[in-house]
Structures are given as structure tokens and as C-alpha cells.
């Protein structure tokens, strides 16, 4: 019996090379209204880095494990911090971890860098850069951790 049969979870998995991924496509998103962009009732489609930004925005604003229409790997778990009596530094660190886990689930995203977390009461503003196969995308999101 081969070692891989005994311990299949120990086998390294290679990342999908960028060339093997199809061009990313998403429905354009109005980040201010938090709604899809429609033209004549038809969704506007964006490609590449704009599509990655839309995917990231929506994944970060979707509570993980809440909606059965999404896979278990999709969404953000920062809502789990609401009502927890963690120290502010612990909440900041957990928000960073949750955001990184959420974004790195996308095969088009290779890294999340330069993350800063600013607190105002129970609200955290998180700024960071997403390194995607299409380049760098700057993003800022707010998380309620009351």
C-alpha cells in the first residue's frame, strides 16, 4: 500500500497555474449602494481585476456558513466576534485572519498585503491590498465587532 493511500491529506496540492484559469467574470457592482449594476435590466459584466474586486467585496460582505447557496469556503466569519469579550488587539488580529482566509479561498488571489485595522468604537475599518493574477487591487471594508 502506498503512503498516499494511508495519508491522502498529506499529499501536496499544486496551486492552479494562472494560465489554466479562465478569465474571471462577475456582474459589475455598485459598492456605494451595495447592489449589482444593471443596464436595461441586464447585468453589466466586468472582467479580470474588476471581477476580482467584485468577488472579494461580495465574499467579505457574506456571512460564512449562513447561506446554503454558497460553499463552505465562501464568506467572512468576522460576525463571530460580535458580542465576544476579546481585547481590542485580539479582535483586530482575528478580523485580519478572517479577511485573509476569506480572500485566499479565491484561486485568482495569491496574497493579501499591507493590512491596517483602525478602530472607532465597535467598528473596524480595514484597508489592504489584494495581489491577484491580474495585479494589485486596493480595498477598504468596515467590520462591526460590537
UniProtKB/TrEMBL annotation:
<protein>
    <submittedName>
        <fullName>DUF2634 domain-containing protein</fullName>
    </submittedName>
</protein>
<dbReference type="Pfam" id="PF10934">
    <property type="entry name" value="Sheath_initiator"/>
</dbReference>
<dbReference type="InterPro" id="IPR020288">
    <property type="entry name" value="Sheath_initiator"/>
</dbReference>
Amino acid at each position: 500500500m502506498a503512503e498516499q493511500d494511508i495519508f491522502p491529506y498529506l499529499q501536496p496540492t499544486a496551486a492552479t497555474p494562472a494560465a489554466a484559469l479562465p478569465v474571471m467574470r462577475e456582474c459589475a457592482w455598485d459598492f456605494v449602494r451595495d447592489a449589482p449594476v444593471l443596464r436595461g435590466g441586464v447585468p453589466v459584466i466586468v472582467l479580470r481585476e474588476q471581477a476580482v474586486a467584485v468577488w472579494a467585496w461580495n465574499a467579505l460582505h457574506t456571512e460564512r456558513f449562513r447561506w446554503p447557496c454558497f460553499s463552505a469556503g465562501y464568506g467572512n466569519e468576522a460576525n463571530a466576534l460580535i458580542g465576544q469579550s476579546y481585547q481590542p488587539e485580539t479582535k483586530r488580529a482575528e478580523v485580519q485572519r478572517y479577511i485573509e482566509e476569506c480572500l485566499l479561498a479565491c484561486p485568482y488571489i495569491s496574497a493579501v498585503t499591507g493590512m491596517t485595522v483602525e478602530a472607532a468604537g465597535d467598528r473596524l475599518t480595514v484597508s489592504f491590498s489584494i495581489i491577484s493574477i491580474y495585479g494589485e487591487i486596493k480595498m477598504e471594508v468596515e467590520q462591526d465587532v460590537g
